[in-house]
Amino acid sequence: MVSLTLAQKGTPLPYVAGALAEYANETKPNSYSVQWQEGASLKGKDKAANSVLIDNGQEFVGSRAAEAFILSALPTPVETAQWIGFAQERLGGAVAFKELELAFSELDQHLQMRSYASGYAVSVADAALWGALRASAIFQRNLKIAGQQVLGPALTRWYAHISAQPFVERLVAAAANAQTAAKPSGAKVTTDQGSFDLGLEGVEDGKVVTRFPPEPSGYLHIGHAKAALLNEYFARSHNGKLIVRFDDTNPNKEKAEFEESITEDLRLLGIHGDVVTHTSDHFQTIYEYALKMINKGLAYADDTPHETMKEERMNGIASQRRDQSVEENLQRFELMRQGTEEGLTWCLRAKMSVDNPNKAMRDPVIFRCNLTPHHRTGTLWKIYPTYDFCCPIVDSIEGVTHALRSMEYRDRNPQYEWFFPALELRPVAIKDFSRMNFVYTLLSKRKLQWFVDSGIVGGWDDPRFPTVRGIRRRGMTIDALRQYVLMQGASQKNMLLEWDKIWALNKKIIDPVAPRHTALLKKELVPVTVVGGPDVPFTKDQPRHKKNPELGTKQTVFSSLVFVDQADAASFAHNEE
């Protein structure tokens, strides 16, 4: 019997080799003894050794070598071989997210009228495809969160069907048993992860609703990623629902371009809202609540100049317009709604307090005029609600149970809670978590926008930017970003983080699967003659990664003429050997 050992934490997870071996056991019982072993490698520090197959004393190290051995003894018609190649090349290894998305779509299309990848019964192609998808963190993430919404109904149906096959169940059960056996009884599990205990009140399983409300005025940065992941984490951990809501209340800054980029970045992060909404969907409702506040004497129109209003709020001085009649306020709010010349000089303020020690409670502005066309509603509206006014209203009417937001809003939490009884709305529980701040790093969209507008950077995806796209261009993987954010937990302690750890985590993920190449800039290349070098240049195949033969080989040229960088040439000493 041939022995196949699989590393539980191998990169990639060796499910293809395991599925092929167990499939072979279906066609010819006891062909392979399959077992899982703790660790990322079965050969010390050799990360390519994610599986080891032994046949009559001969070792085949690495999943590709094991797969090739197993496939050599199985019938593989042309179509079957094509889908095996699809599993290995299109679904396995370090495949880019967009390429994976295309592969998922292609596979879903193929399976729409089929129960199996090739033929009319389970074949080795199904085993290989299932193994590649089981090993894909992106597929598993999307399967758990979004299912058919992203992966397609045919692919999710087929995956569930193959997962129920006896040979697959044996492999999965063996992996689970090995994982349990690897943990000593009563051992304390330690993780490099912060606490997620926010002390949420009123949590009912299946009824928790959280929301992530980005403003479409820029690209997602790493701080937004934390907010999105935490809201998603709490929704999923309580079998609840996540709402992705675009807070599009400022037409001066917002663009459809930003909304599209945010949607794509969230998808890259594996975050899929159960519902996607816009604050602009509720503009009419918010307007009616503003009228209700005026009629209840809880809001007033104000034309105090901006600087004077700022000074009065700072010093606890009431506005001269604070005690206007309801009729006067309604009349001026109507002028605001029409966008008249006079209406443009007014704003609407909530009548909360004049001298509350918390200055956020000092009659905040809740509606402003703006004649800029909105990217969704056009010129329908000439007035727009502020974030602080629309947020509690929309949270309540959309069914949000827990509003989780960063601690920069803490002073405004009493303001948020004030609106619920004032407007007779269902209250929403609110909890804070700390912002993710990095040394020498700007996360303010306003300041980042200045760099873009000034032409100092190439755009929001500049690799020097802390946006999701920027750090992706610099080489950050989505897996590393997700892991790092979740490692921070939901702490309320403000921290100034270093970039070193996230890049170290990224290196740990890509090092085993990144091919090695050498490159020089064409500009200012310096030719160097190596005395005693080959008279005739020749090429030789060299591994792309010495510890991962699965990455294949590259052709390396050996010659007496080599090229070096200008800086290196300048460092050479005379007659240096």
Protein described:
With 577 residues, the chain is of the alpha/beta class. The protein is 40% helix and 15% strand. The chain has 21 helices and 19 strands. The strands form seven sheets. The chain has a four-stranded mixed sheet. The chain has a four-stranded antiparallel sheet with strand order 8-9-10-11. Strands 5-6-7 form a three-stranded parallel sheet, with helices on one face. The protein starts with a strand and ends in a 7-residue tail after the last helix. Residues 185-193 have low confidence and may be disordered.
Work out the helix count.
21
Give the % helix. 25-40%
Instruction: Report strand order across the widest sheet.
Output: 2-1-3-4
* Percent range for β-strand residues: 15-25%
DSSP E strands, number: 19
List keywords for this structure.
four-stranded mixed sheet, 577 residues, globular, 21 helices, four-stranded antiparallel sheet
List the helices and strands and how they pair.
Elements: E1 2-7, H1 15-27, E2 32-37, E3 51-55, E4 58-61, H2 63-72, H3 78-89, H4 97-110, H5 124-135, H6 137-145, H7 148-151, H8 153-163, H9 166-181, E5 209-212, H10 222-237, E6 241-246, H11 256-268, E7 275-278, H12 283-295, E8 299-302, H13 306-315, H14 326-338, E9 347-350, E10 365-369, E11 383-385, H15 387-397, E12 402-406, H16 413-423, E13 429-433, E14 436-438, H17 445-453, H18 468-473, H19 478-488, E15 495-497, H20 500-510, E16 526-529, E17 538-543, E18 553-558, E19 561-564, H21 566-570
Parallel strand pairs: 1-2, 5-6, 6-7, 12-13, 14-15
Antiparallel strand pairs: 1-3, 3-4, 8-9, 9-10, 10-11, 16-19, 17-18
Helix pairs in contact: 1-2, 1-5, 1-9, 3-5, 4-8, 10-19, 15-16, 19-20
